[in-house]
What we know:
The chain has about 325 residues and is of the alpha/beta class. It has 2 domains: about 5-175 and about 215-240, Rossmann fold (3-Layer(aba) Sandwich), CATH 3.40.50.720; about 180-210 and about 245-270 and about 295-330, UDP-galactose 4-epimerase, domain 1 (Alpha-Beta Complex). The chain has helices at about 10-25, 65-70, 85-90, 95-115, 145-165, 185-195, 215-230, 245-255, 280-285, 295-310, 310-315, 320-330; strands spanning about 5, 30-35, 55, 75-80, 115-125, 170-175, 175-180, 200-205, 210, 215, 235-240, 245, 265. The strands form 4 sheets. It has a 7-stranded parallel beta sheet, sandwiched between helices. The protein has a two-stranded parallel ribbon with strand order 7-10. It binds nicotinamide-adenine-dinucleotide and thymidine-5'-diphosphate. Nicotinamide-adenine-dinucleotide binds near residues 8, 79, 82 and 121.
Amino acid sequence: MKRIMVTGGAGFIGSAFVRYQLRTYPDVHIVNFDKLTYAGNLNNVKGVDETRHTFVRGDIADAEAVMSAMKDCDAVVNFAAETHVDRSIMAAADFIDTDVRGVHNIVEAAKALGTKRVLLVSTDEVYGSIAKGSFKETDPMGPRNPYSASKAGGELLAMAYFHTHNVPVIITRGSNTYGPYQYPEKVLPLFVTNAIDNQPLPLYGDGKNVRDWLYVDDHCTGIDCALRHGEPGQIYNVAGENERENIVLTRRILELTGRGKELIKPITDRPGHDRRYSIDASKLKALGWRAAMEWDTGIASTVRWYKENEWWWRPIKTGEFLEYYKRQYDNR
Ligand code: NAD
Ligand code: TYD
């Protein structure tokens, strides 16, 4: 695999994947195809080896642009997506354009070009909520919000192209991911940066919803393992095996930022809020993958990163972000 197209490579996990590929495989050239929506940021790939990195600004919902960028690529790894559940509750159209139509354009181009691997980065949220135990890849999907439903739609379409047209599609379903360069609308960077600024941490409902936290570099090695060693037509869960109630995560963030619990502000719950996500990653582990990051080290180093890199997040928490913040959190 010499030339890999990474879509959404200016986002949180996509940019970590680009950096991981460039430092791990000296022969790899990355075509980074990204629309640069509010969540895309070229600062996320600042300093990468530009001789092996070609940035193309484009929209995966634009079939011609996808086809032209994918020419000569051995593989495509699709990170490009609208990714925030709360925004999908406000308005879902962009989610359908990117997470469903965009995926269709990628598998269509792969069919026409004979691309050797199409890896679709998906999410544990497609399973929906589980009270006890963990979902396996053979369990049915049950998405319950417009974000997870559009990711599930993209998955179904991509797998249909595997069965019908032999497009070599592999899907990964990762759990909640954390680390540097995460857009501060997601709970972890939002709470860390709010705490640094002595601002309230808006905790939904009773704070007892559970998420399984996966360090971003471990998510990247999981995707890379599935890409290189996985089988077309297969789905692989990528789990952090690190479940935490939101309130427990919130208290840890307060400790690490040296702030008190008076900053916690319980607010009206998210509609359709999934109670618990949990997945079983035995199938990917059978291919040799393991998560390397311990939670205590991962959360401490991530909080430190946001403390030391205000240059990165301060310019983001302005303009469009503040408008969104107001719409999402005022009067709750
Ligand atoms: P992100 O929101 O940080 O970044 C998304 C990137 O995609 C941005 O750079 C954006 O500009 C780009 N993009 C959006 N629409 C596009 C379009 N139409 N054409 C081209 N580029 C477009 O997202 P993330 O958190 O890095 O997530 C990446 C992928 O991983 C997504 O597919 C998401 O569903 C999946 N995922 C995320 C998590 C998580 O916890 N963040 C967990 C599991 C799976
Ligand atoms: P989020 O980071 O939006 O990821 P996802 O919804 O994809 O899991 O939210 C993670 C958890 O944190 C989820 O249970 C909702 C909760 N949450 C809050 O309590 N307050 C917030 O302001 C946000 C954004 C999320």
